[in-house]
Design a protein that fits this description.
Elements (H helix, E strand, L loop, with lengths): L6 H12 L6 H30 L6 H13 L7
């Protein structure tokens, strides 16, 4: 697959590669596409949550904090 990108984007890719975090253009593209997929999934989740709230299916902020506190105080697996 051949890609046509602007000079600005090409320089951005080169700069990122020089930084050493990615060893190839393919690795950088895979990571970028993975992040785009995650962003799209997050947007869908947010829209779904908004729709649920609009239908009165939400939980109170107090309940959210109670659930978070419970998770934080629960011992993690693998600890003795």
């Amino acid at each position: 697959m051949a890609l046509d990108i602007t000079p600005d984007l090409e320089e951005m890719v080169r700069s990122i590669l020089r930084g050493g975090q990615y060893d190839s253009e393919s690795a950088l593209l895979r990571e970028a596409l993975s992040l785009l997929r995650q962003r799209d999934e997050l947007r869908r989740d947010i829209q779904e949550g908004i729709a649920e709230l609009d239908q009165g299916e939400g939980v109170s902020i107090e309940e959210v904090f109670e659930q978070l506190e419970e998770k934080m105080t629960r011992p993690t697996q693998g600890t003795k």
